[in-house]
Design goal:
Its EC number is 4.1.1.48. InterPro entries: Aldolase_TIM, Indole-3-glycerol_P_synth, Indole-3-glycerol_P_synth_dom, Indole-3-GlycerolPSynthase_CS, RibuloseP-bd_barrel. This protein has about 270 residues and is an alpha/beta fold. It has 12 helices and 10 strands. The chain has an 8-stranded parallel barrel with strand order 1-4-5-6-7-8-9-10, surrounded by 6 helices. Helix 10 links the parallel strand 9 and strand 10. Helix 4 runs parallel beside helix 12 and helix 10 packs across helix 12. The longest helix has 19 residues.
């Protein structure tokens, strides 16, 4: 059993336990459930420059603890001040050290920015959870879902007013999983078998993603030059977590990257 299979197996147990504690009817009564979602796809469609989706992540299965001494409300507010297009907050407890509390604290500190609930969605119940904590976007990972599940989960997400980010790692996943109820396609540059990252993955898949879908690149992104290279291939958003989170001040790390992006854009206006 690989790490993804372990995460999914644990997630299914976790969801069944959650259902016994709080019903869908209970989730629908939460204060944030009726909140109107903010569209990330609209933000990215209209951009003329690369936009950063900044992630709050305490740890990962491959790296262990990345940063255990940070507060979600402070880090995410700093991200927003630095110009983040959206926020991604981990809610998986066992493998990533996230929580609903992290998400809710980030949501309270940043009420108007699109926020992605970063987790492993395996059950429709989790969509109601996402809505109840004020998420705008949910993640569907092609590597751990059947195409039929992606279609049904994405349709239900739309019914709830949530946008859908479909994450793929290769052309096979993309071909099998893409459907018209997906809003954003995220190409993860990390090989799930080796955990190595290569932006070549995003480059190779770029032409295979129809222009009707917003494209973002994920993992292994740290420098402005690479981001502009991928921007030229049609990627509008860039999801970055570890690069920021491994520093003492994640918000300042985003400021530095934004400055580098501005310098490249100003010195080479033809790239925008």
């Amino acid at each position: 059993m690989n790490i993804l299979e372990k995460i999914v197996a644990r997630k299914k147990v976790e969801v069944e336990l959650s259902k016994k504690i709080k019903s869908i009817a209970d989730l629908e009564k939460e204060e944030l459930f009726d909140r109107t979602s903010v569209s990330l796809s609209d933000v990215l469609k209209s951009t003329s420059a690369p936009r950063i989706i900044s992630e709050f992540k305490r740890k990962s299965p491959s790296k262990g603890i990345i940063n255990g001494n940070v507060l979600p409300e402070i880090v995410t507010a700093d991200y927003v001040s630095a110009g983040a297009a959206a926020l991604s907050v981990l809610t998986d407890i066992d493998f990533f050290g996230g929580s609903f509390d992290d998400f809710l604290r980030a949501r309270k500190a940043n009420p108007n920015i699109p926020m992605l609930r970063k987790d492993f969605i395996v059950d429709e119940y989790q969509l109601f959870e996402a809505k109840s904590i004020g998420a705008d976007i949910i993640l569907l990972i092609a590597a751990c879902l059947e195409p039929s599940e992606i279609k049904s989960l994405s349709q239900k997400a739309h019914d709830l007013g949530l946008e859908v980010l479909l994450e793929v790692h290769n052309s096979e996943e993309l071909a099998q999983s893409l459907c018209d109820t997906v809003d954003i396609v995220g190409v993860n540059n990390r090989n799930l078998k080796t955990f190595e990252t290569s932006i070549q993955t995003s480059i190779e898949l770029s032409a295979q993603i129809p222009d009707s879908f917003v494209k973002i690149s994920e993992s292994g992104l740290s420098d402005a030059e690479t981001i502009f290279e991928l921007f030229a291939y049609g990627y509008k958003g860039f999801l970055i977590g570890e690069t920021f989170m491994k520093t003492d001040n994640p918000g300042a790390a985003l400021v530095a990257l934004q400055n580098n992006l501005s310098q490249i854009g100003n010195s080479n206006p033809h790239v925008i």
